[in-house]
């Protein structure tokens, strides 16, 4: 599977991530989009931004994780970083609390 993803064109990979994200209820976004969301004023009144976001950040220290998950469903941009995309997705989907997610992921909360 990894070889298939490495060979996929960027538009095809973007389309795949969009489809998976729609199914999961998570927006896969570039690092810059997530940073802007987290650094902006609370988006309580902007329904367009109220969603869950996930991005891969290769610059995040390994001890903190590489997948940045932002739960902005309430407009508060709750943010956590995980090593595992699966754990990040589980946290975004309310399948586990942040403490449990970090314990399973081996990352700091």
Folded structure, characterized:
The chain is α+β, with helices and mostly antiparallel strands. It has one domain. It contains five helices and four strands; from the N terminus they run ααβαβββαα. It has a four-stranded mixed β-sheet, with helices on both faces. It is globular and about 30 Å long.
Q: Sketch the major β-sheet.
A: 4 strands, mixed
Mean pLDDT: 82
Helix-and-strand structural type:
alpha+beta
Integer count of domains: 1
Q: Low-confidence runs (pLDDT<50, min 5 residues)?
A: none
Helical amount = 40-55%
Strand content range: 15-25%
Helix and strand sequence:
HHEHEEEHH
Number of H/I helices: 5
Assembly type of the shown chains? single chain
Q: How much is the radius of gyration in Å? A: 14 Å
Distance between the terminal alpha carbons, to the nearest Å? Answer: 31 Å
Tell me, briefly, the overall form: globular
* Number of distinct beta strands: 4
Adjacency order of strands in the biggest sheet = 1-2-3-4
């Amino acid at each position: 599977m990894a070889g298939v993803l490495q060979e996929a064109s960027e538009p095809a990979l973007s389309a795949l991530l969009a489809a998976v994200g729609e199914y999961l209820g998570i927006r896969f976004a570039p690092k810059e989009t997530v940073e802007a969301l987290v650094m902006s004023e609370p988006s309580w009144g902007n329904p367009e931004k109220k969603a869950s976001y996930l991005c891969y950040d290769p610059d995040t220290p390994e001890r903190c994780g590489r997948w940045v998950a932002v739960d902005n469903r309430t407009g508060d941009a709750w943010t956590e970083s995980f090593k595992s995309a699966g754990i990040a997705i589980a946290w975004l989907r309310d399948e586990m609390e942040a403490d449990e997610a970090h314990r399973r992921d081996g990352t700091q909360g």
